[in-house]
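Z., the sequence and structure:
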Amino acid sequence: MKARLMMKRVSAAVAAAAMVCSTVSLETFAYSGSYDNSFTFTNSGISASNAAGSGYKINGTSLTINEAGTYVVSGQCVEGSITVKKGTTGVVLILDELTLTCSSTAPVSVNKGAEAEIVINGKNTLTDSENPANETSSDTTVADAFEGAGIKVKSGSSLTLTGTGTLTVNGSNCKNGIKGAATSTVTVGENANDSFTLNVNAVNNALAADGELIINGGNINVTSSDDGIKASPDDDDTESKGTVTINGGKISVTASDDAVHAEQVNVLGGNLTINAGNDGLKAENALTVGKADGSGPEIDVKKSYEGFEGATITLRGGKGSILSSDDGMNAANSELKNFTYELNISGGEWYVNADGDGVDSNGNMSISGGYTEVFGAANNGNGALDIGDFGNSLTYTGGTIVAVGMNGMAVTPTSGNYIAFGTSGMGGGFGGGFGRPGSQSGQSGSSYSISKGASIAIKDSSGNTLYEATAVKSANHVVFASESLKSDVTYTLYVNGQSVATATLTAGTGQSQGSGQPGGQGQPGQGQWQPGQGQWQPGQGQQPWQPGQGQEQPGQDNPPDQPEEPETDPTANYPKVTKIEYSEKYHQFRLTWNAVDGAEKYGVAVYLAGKWKVVDQNITTTTFTSPKLAAGQTYKMVVCAKINGSWDISKINSRAFTVTVK
């Protein structure tokens, strides 16, 4: 009788096959287990050890498997292929010192509805040398035969790779390495103890499946000129899950675009090293790292544009280091409408060195556990922490967060206790609308600077060190939150051993954030500054320079100006800036706009680093006064109204205007 091996685990499959009397042993091959047949490829043909056996068909140098069983395949062929026939299940292919190249189709194909397991034994290489132009050939026979992958797993089929040897899949001459089509499942490894090596090279996607891609173990090296590991169904594919799940394995990805990209990405275990031209881990929807019990992967993002990106990001366990040229972590997806973005950290150890925002959510952010250390960009257009708008919040309830960056876009928790060193300037978190500063009443208001390479330390009043590090870039603002902080203690920030600022415990205000408020100055956005500060007086919105108020007299500064880009639509029901006033002495400006019928509040945002950043969303007058800024700096700004509980951000770009600080 014919052995039919239905199990996924090859060890169990081989053991079962060994009990079947019709199995054959071929001691001349490196593989010494039991099997149903073995095939040897040469450039001129394929030979079978059991020519009278069933379950296969040979046509020149093309081998088709059409029955369940265990088959050993070896040899070399410059124009050969293996196909598991449509609907055939229970197939185990043992690749034993096999080298196949094919220019007319994929070297290995698992056709629709089929199920196969590839067991890697010895050294094996599969190379797809198809002409990429064949995919769009006017010859339908040529176009239909095009697979564009070293291993093609067709719609509704599944493939599992296991073993102890090495398999190199080369798609760098054509398109993909291993590619699963719609509703397919590709599983790499059985568990974290798998010792095989899988090398995948591709000009497009290296290791991909539109349905599900699961990595359980093995040593996996991926190199791609596009995405490395991917599960991204076509737009018209409504059945495929588009999920990448990594449970284990030692994985190295070098990709010109995203290292890992899917609709949903779950990295629950394993060891990942990433060099990406674009994002390290990218999920169109949910990105989850680590397990609920706090265990998880080790991730080293050595190069990326953004390290982690997903509409929601959940960090539950593991540890990771991120180096990014833009945001380190970013909860965002511009393709989603009316979506609530979230970034939640409940466990793990995370280190971020970003040249954009360090940890950014275009919605809410919550930190309830773990240890997170963030260095944001060394410029005032980004913050170490950043959140969204329309009442979005940064909630701290546990764990440790250290955020080192510049004060221009500094954000502090809106809920929970923290300390902050340094004053904050204009700007803040934007995710499509407006935010508001958290309280910084516990700050000393001291200005200081941290240079790259400087030592940083935070100590309590007893001299105990809570945090110490070497600055990886320049900074002038530090936020620190830990469950060890106490309300009756003064904390000191040291830079190169010198005390530069002090702070006491501060509680978040419960308001969503935008910018911090400058120390020693009044509230931005209210058109009111405190008397005696050489600033505008309350109630003087139309004439800021009044005699006898200790301020400049008319004619000693620049007169009121009109907006550089005034709104011209007479029917528009949103604020139109009617006047911009400048103070050259204090490098400040004030905006005045018309009242909008039904407006509950007004908000002001500034466009920085490619994003609308919130200045204030709680304005009840029709004026806004800026903090002290750098002379000559030009800002693109907009004023919006909140009507019937919603912010009107229609035509936000077209009604923006610019202001240049005098």
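The first helix runs from residue 10 to 18. The domain at 577-660 is CATH 2.60.40.10 (Immunoglobulin-like).

Let me know what you think.
H.
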